[in-house]
């Protein structure tokens, strides 16, 4: 899926995360900020990257402000922001699981 | 038979509540995609609930998951349904059910999705919320509309508006409660009462719980986790009731073993409805102990 | 829940009652109401507004939480709502000013400090890669040399005065970085101003022409803000712009010297030039000092050449005289853009933010020369 506009999803509240996405010429740039970055930073980024790859997003700038969200919430917020920013939402639900 | 005393409403867009609500141990947890979600967050809530439903905790704890979808006539309802059936929801709650056809339409779509995603046909249960005069008048055919229905619920907010009145001491719901309850009992499914929205008024809440329990409702929709324990306690039997029910069940099992046609306790005949009631009392006691 | 808060949007132009309640909340928090706020988010508990924040385009202003509720992290739902509201209005990159004591609270809301005027005000943006990303893009354009110069100009329009300043600067450094103010609030559009500068310096060697950015003489860096101490405020809004230049832009390009023209007419620019001497050179900074070179503007006859003079002549359609003050390309743009009867005073100019910041005359605003 191609990211064609900037979008925003999620909240700043505890157990959630706020994600911004913007178009980028090539490659994924993921910028992560988290209160638990030392313990979970790598894992959060891996979940974000995997979720984006599953959606076929290979070029985007993604800024994540994490507030201690569970992995499934991270997936949900990333999928939502892509849905809002993509040219056409073609993902099947099975690709989101 | 499953206990369904408390059905906790959770706004589908709230990640924190979705991540933690199971700790309150309601009998059923209901993710709301409808009125609790703003138009802006409809897409976000659907995806969030899709993931929340798949959290292992629900399978492990046996806590029933319910999702209130948007009406199928809205731009969101069908996609809500696609998401939650695929995510393995236990029960789909249909809002604003006015006629049995509403249930038929939902059932057909659920079956289509079950087939499309390989889920066992019939495994998605349904629940219809009655929120209008039309729904109340049609309560019996609605309750009989599908084998998938596990219950019907009265939702008061829209109902009182349709009736050109407002929430008060409960007399405004009297007919609707009785109609919904009778339809459910006739169809042999559960009946759920509306939410009590003033979360500060414990006394008023307990008074209402006492009323609906005496009327015969299985339980109630709740909007605050704090109300769960109050409700479970109110539904918990007394020690005397538990003692009596134990003796009834023991006598029944005894009688069955001996192959007796008529079962008696202390010289009195006990028939099937008494035994069934005693079993329900024991289930409630097992779930939340006796009343404090 | 009783402690539940519900966000509302308040349009200050059409909701006087809610706006009055917001004003009262701001006063209780020792903040002043800003008339430039286009829309507020108000959090209500019950029927009472307990927190608010406003948007002036992409700048968050008037953020306040009822004093007795400040322990409750209401800032998170408040700033979540602001972020979504701003996004709907087309602003993804947000800025704010706050007291340094409040930085942690906004940090928890996804804002990152850019610069601080010590003890007075901190300038923040809602991305960790904003100014740093911008500097990374500048670094690619670094040029070798011992003395690296910089000029930031609005060029509204580009005159022989600007040309003189650039020529002087090029002659007095190894390489010159020339920035055109990007904010589109001047009489001439950014596109036209950039084109005029580009044509006006095309023949000069050792010069890099840069588009402006939000980090340089922009609404964000050069804005008034909400503290009641007006004197401190007036001092600080130039300081923010200059500190961003010193702490980020100059190190990225290795800039050691900044050139400006003297400003005999405009109080704002004059003050900006004086503040430059202070903030670019203050020794108590971890960043290297930047030399400030102020050169007298050239005159045509007895009147120093200024962009405002050119605009007055344009209003009077005196193209003959204009031709003696501006290069040919600028003159062509002026002729092309000029419509009889359309005078600068009829354009929604000066930008209100400058006026509010300074409380004084408008059209010349932050003209650099």
Q: Write down the secondary-structure element order of chain C.
A: EHEEEHEHEEHEHEHEHEHEEEHHHH
* Annotation, overall tally of beta strands of chain C: 14
Radius of gyration of chain C: 22 Å
What is the highest CATH level, the class of the largest domain in chain C?
Answer: Alpha Beta
Biggest interface, chains and residues, is: A-B, 23 and 19 residues
Mean pLDDT of chain C: 85
What do you see in this structure?
The complex is a heterotrimer of chains A (97), B (292) and C (369). Chain A has three helices and four strands, in the order βββαβαα. Chain A has 97 residues and is α+β, with helices and mostly antiparallel strands. In chain A, α1 packs across α2. Chain B has two domains: 6-235, TIM Barrel, CATH 3.20.20; 239-288, no CATH class. The mean pLDDT of chain B is 94. Chain B starts with 5 loop residues before the first strand and ends with a helix. Chain B has helices at residues 15-20, 42-52, 56-61, 77-86, 100-117, 133-137, 139-143, 156-162, 174-187, 202-215, 226-235, 239-257, 272-288, and strands at residues 6-11, 28-32, 64-68, 91-94, 125-130, 149-154, 190-193, 219-222, 264-265, 268-269. In chain B, α10 (202-215) packs across α11 (226-235) and α12 (239-257) packs across α13 (272-288). Chain B has an eight-stranded parallel β-barrel with strand order 1-2-3-4-5-6-7-8, surrounded by five helices. Chain B has a two-stranded antiparallel sheet with strand order 9-10. Chain C is α/β, with parallel strands linked by helices and 369 residues long. Chains A and B meet through α2 and α3 of A and α1, α2 and α4 of B.
List keywords for this structure.
heterotrimer, A: alpha+beta, 3 helices, 38% helix, 27% strand, C: 369 residues, Aminopeptidase, Rossmann fold, 12 helices, 20% strand
In short:
With 292 residues, chain B is of the alpha/beta class.
List the helices and strands and how they pair.
The complex is a heterotrimer of chains A (97), B (292) and C (369).
Chain A: E1 7-10, E2 17-22, E3 27-34, H1 37-54, E4 59-66, H2 71-85, H3 93-96
Parallel strand pairs in A: 3-4
Antiparallel strand pairs in A: 1-2, 2-4
Chain B: E1 6-11, H1 15-20, E2 28-32, H2 42-52, H3 56-61, E3 64-68, H4 77-86, E4 91-94, H5 100-117, E5 125-130, H6 133-137, H7 139-143, E6 149-154, H8 156-162, H9 174-187, E7 190-193, H10 202-215, E8 219-222, H11 226-235, H12 239-257, E9 264-265, E10 268-269, H13 272-288
Parallel strand pairs in B: 1-2, 1-8, 2-3, 3-4, 4-5, 5-6, 6-7, 7-8
Antiparallel strand pairs in B: 9-10
Chain C: E1 6-10, H1 16-28, E2 39-45, E3 48-56, E4 59-65, H2 75-88, E5 95-98, H3 103-107, E6 112-117, E7 121-125, H4 130-139, E8 148-153, H5 160-171, E9 175-180, H6 190-201, E10 207-211, H7 230-253, E11 257-261, H8 267-279, E12 291-295, E13 299-300, E14 303-304, H9 307-315, H10 319-325, H11 328-337, H12 352-358
Parallel strand pairs in C: 4-5, 8-9, 8-11, 9-10, 11-12
Antiparallel strand pairs in C: 1-2, 2-3, 3-4, 5-7, 6-7, 13-14
Helix pairs in contact in C: 4-7, 7-8
């Amino acid at each position: 899926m191609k990211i064609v506009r900037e979008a925003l999803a999620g909240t700043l509240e505890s157990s959630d995360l706020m994600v911004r996405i913007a178009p980028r010429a090539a490659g994924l740039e993921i910028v992560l900020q988290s209160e638990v970055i030392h313990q979970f930073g790598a894992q959060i980024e891996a979940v974000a990257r995997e979720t984006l790859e599953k959606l076929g997003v290979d070029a985007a700038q993604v800024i994540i402000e994490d507030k201690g969200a569970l992995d499934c919430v991270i997936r949900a917020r990333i999928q939502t922001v892509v849905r809002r920013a993509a040219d056409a939402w073609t993902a099947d639900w099975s690709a989101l699981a | 038979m499953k206990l369904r005393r408390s059905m906790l409403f959770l706004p589908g867009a709230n990640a924190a509540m979705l991540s933690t609500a199971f700790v309150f141990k309601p009998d059923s947890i209901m993710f709301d995609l409808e009125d609790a979600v703003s138009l802006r967050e409809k897409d976000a809530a659907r995806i969030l609930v899709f993931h929340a439903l798949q959290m292992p905790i629900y399978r492990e704890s046996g806590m029933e998951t319910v999702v209130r979808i948007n009406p199928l006539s809205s731009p969101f309802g069908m996609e809500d349904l696609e998401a939650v059936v695929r995510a393995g929801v236990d029960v789909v709650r249909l809002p604003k059910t006015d006629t049995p056809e509403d249930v038929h339409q939902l059932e057909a779509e659920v079956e289509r999705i079950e087939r499309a995603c390989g889920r066992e046909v019939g495994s998605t249960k349904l629940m219809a919320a009655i929120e209008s005069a039309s729904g109340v008048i049609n309560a019996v055919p609605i309750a009989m509309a599908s084998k998938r229905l596990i219950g019907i619920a009265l939702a008061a907010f829209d109902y009182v508006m349709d009736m050109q009145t407002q929430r008060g001491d409960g007399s405004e719901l009297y007919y609707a409660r009785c109609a919904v309850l009778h339809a459910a009992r006739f169809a042999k499914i559960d009946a759920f009462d509306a939410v009590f929205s003033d979360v500060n008024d414990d006394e008023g809440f307990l008074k209402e719980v006492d009323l609906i329990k005496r009327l015969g409702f299985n339980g109630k929709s709740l909007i605050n986790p704090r109300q769960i324990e109050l409700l479970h306690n109110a539904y918990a039997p007394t020690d005397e009731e538990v003692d009596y029910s134990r003796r009834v069940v023991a006598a029944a099992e005894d009688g069955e073993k001996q192959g007796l046609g008529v079962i008696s306790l202390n010289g009195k005949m006990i028939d099937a409805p008494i035994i069934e009631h005693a079993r329900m009392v024991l289930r409630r006691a097992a779930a939340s102990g006796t009343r404090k | 829940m009783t402690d539940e808060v519900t966000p509302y949007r308040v349009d200050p132009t059409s909701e006087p009652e809610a706006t009055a309640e917001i004003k009262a909340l701001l006063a209780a928090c020792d903040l002043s109401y800003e008339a430039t706020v286009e829309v507020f988010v108000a959090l209500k508990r019950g029927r009472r507004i307990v927190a608010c924040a406003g948007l002036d385009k992409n700048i968050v202003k008037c953020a306040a939480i009822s004093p007795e509720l400040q322990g409750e992290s209401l800032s998170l739902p408040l700033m979540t709502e602001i972020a979504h509201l701003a996004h709907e209005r087309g602003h993804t990159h947000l800025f704010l000013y706050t007291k340094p004591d409040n930085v942690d609270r906004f940090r928890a809301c996804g804002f990152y400090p850019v610069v601080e005027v010590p003890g007075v005000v901190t300038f923040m943006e809602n991305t960790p890669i904003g100014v740093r990303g911008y500097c990374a893009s500048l670094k690619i354009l670094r040029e070798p040399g011992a003395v690296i110069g910089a000029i930031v100009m609005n060029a509204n329009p580009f005159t022989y005065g600007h040309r003189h300043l650039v020529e002087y600067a090029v002659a007095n450094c190894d390489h010159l970085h020339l920035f055109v103010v990007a904010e589109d609030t001047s009489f001439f559009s950014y596109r036209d101003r950039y084109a005029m500068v580009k044509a006006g310096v095309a023949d000069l060697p050792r010069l890099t022409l840069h588009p402006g950015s939000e980090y340089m003489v922009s609404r964000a860096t050069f804005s008034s803000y909400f503290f009641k101490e007006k004197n401190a405020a007036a001092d600080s809004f130039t300081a923010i712009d200059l500190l961003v230049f010193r702490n980020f832009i100059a190190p990225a390009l290795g800039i050691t010297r900044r050139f400006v023209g003297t400003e005999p007419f405009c109080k704002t620019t004059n003050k900006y030039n004086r503040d430059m001497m202070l903030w670019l050179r203050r020794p108590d900074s971890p960043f290297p000092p930047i030399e400030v070179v102020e050169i007298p503007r050239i005159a045509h006859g007895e009147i120093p050449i200024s962009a405002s003079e050119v605009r007055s002549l344009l209003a009077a359609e005196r193209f003959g005289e204009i031709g003696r003050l501006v290069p040919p390309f600028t003159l062509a743009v002026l002729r092309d853009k000029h419509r009889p009867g359309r005078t600068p005073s009829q354009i929604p100019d000066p930008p209100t933010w400058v006026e509010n910041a300074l409380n004084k005359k408008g059209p010349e605003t932050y003209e650099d020369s």
